[in-house]
Amino acid sequence: MENRDITKPIRNIEPWWQRFAAGLNEFYHAPYRQTMARAARDEEDFFMLLMFAESLGIDNPASFYTLELQPLFLENFHEWHTRMGMDRCPFDHVGCC
Known about the structure:
With 97 residues, this protein is mainly alpha-helical. The protein is elongated. The longest helix is centred in the middle third of the chain and has 24 residues, at 33-56. The chain has one domain (17-84). The chain contains 5 helices and no strands. It has helices at 16-29, 33-56, 63-66, 70-73, 77-83. This is DNA helicase. It comes from Psychrobacter luti.
């Protein structure tokens, strides 16, 4: 049985061109990662406003369709209302704060 030296680094199995392509991919996408994350967060904030608009007193023509989604997004509601600048939960029936 052959003894292996465990201090030697394990050679990377990926070919050099795959590592190079992954590096290029990271080089081109890294500057836009923060912008895309901010855009996704803004889109999620708008969706949460659309879902809970009727409960907040804002007329919402799509409330019939979003009403059944509210229980699924209720666990994210505390994060959202604090990010929107509401220190306390605006609902009496939801005790998130």
